[in-house]
Design a protein that fits this description.
By secondary structure, this protein is mostly helical. It has a domain of 66 residues. It comes from Polyangium spumosum. This is Tetratricopeptide repeat protein.
């Protein structure tokens, strides 16, 4: 039995060596990813500088290079799409936003930016879907909430707009932003006037049926 001991030692040593090499390879991969992201960030910085000087072509080249280096770097997609929007090429801008959303996990800014573009194009339901997607990743994102509120109003989805407004009101109060809280509260009150009958908070949920009771619960959760 003892004669098998050296063989076991050799086997264990081989396993340890394989694990060490695998760990080293993972570390090198992480270093490569980190380097690519840093380079992409630098290229985006250069693109912004070119755009400031009015050199749109150079700015776009740097942004494309950034995406090529790190296809998961969200700011590069935002920058490139913004360049297309600035020149009126909204089709290409939307394509870039969509490409970014396919590659960047939890891309809140991408959903919000595409939502704003779609709203400007009058595609309100698609815009609302984008803002809702952004908020599914970041429920307290102020820009996405604002975009969703405005889009709901444009869709005449006033109960949903009221819920969004009250959420903004609560968030502004929580962070101590008196001006934003005042504005959100004024908007909420204006919507209450329009929705005196349907407002799930002011009117309460009593004797309003299952739909209105559900709406009341939803709005209270959003406060």
């Amino acid at each position: 039995m003892l004669e098998h001991a050296p063989r076991r030692v050799v086997t264990l040593a081989c396993v340890a060596l394989v694990l060490a090499l695998a760990a080293e390879a993972r570390g090198q991969e992480n270093d490569t990813t980190s380097w690519a992201t840093k380079q992409a960030a630098e290229l985006v910085r250069q693109a912004n500088a070119h755009a400031t000087r009015g050199d749109d072509a150079a700015a776009r080249r740097r942004l494309v290079e950034a995406i090529t280096l790190d296809p998961t770097y969200g700011p590069a997609y935002l920058g490139l799409a913004a360049r297309h929007e600035a020149t009126g090429d909204v089709v290409e801008a939307e394509r870039v936003y969509t490409a970014g959303l396919e590659r960047v996990a939890g891309f809140v800014e991408g959903h919000a930016a595409r939502g704003r573009l779609r709203k400007r194009l009058g595609r309100l339901r698609e815009a609302a879907a984008d803002f809702e997607a952004a908020l599914s990743f970041a429920p307290d994102d102020a820009a996405a909430l604002e975009g969703l509120f405005v889009t709901y109003v444009a869709l005449s989805a006033l109960p949903a707009a009221l819920a969004a407004s009250r959420r903004m009101e609560a968030l502004a109060e929580a962070r101590g932003d008196a001006q934003a809280h005042k504005e959100a509260r004024a908007r909420s009150r204006a919507l209450v006037v329009l929705l005196a009958e349907l407002d799930p908070v002011m009117g309460g949920a009593r004797d309003r049926g299952p739909v209105r009771r559900a709406l009341a619960r939803h709005t209270r959760r959003g406060r």
